[in-house]
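U., I forgot to send this yesterday:
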Amino acid sequence: MIELCAGLIILVPIILGLVDLAFLIAAMQVNDAACRDAARAAAAGPPTEAFQRASGVAQATNRTQGYIKGPTVTQSDVTTNPASIADPGPFGGPYQGTVRVKTHVQLTMPVPIPFIPQTTQPMEFVAQQEFPITYVKPNTATIP
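Result:
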């Protein structure tokens, strides 16, 4: 009986630590996947609409309750390189440049460990992805 109690004293904290580790890995995977999808969506349209596309994808996977909250995207998290991308004109054509998107996820540990202060407060994870703009403007020129 003593062996069982001594074993549980060691085994229970290890199992609880593994639960925290599982949530930590899940939060990072959710953030990475949402950032990748938001960056692809932002790059698939006109550069002027990059934020709307990225935030739409982030909102589709956004969680507001539970241990993992997010992902969120703000206006300053979506940037294009170069900052001002030239319009191809009325004859259409591809845009040149890239779109960079950052997403934020907040994790509250389900089992905070008292002697590790980082587990008692919410942690924020930031992911960043950059994709080339793949949008091709259609030809809008008309023959007079």
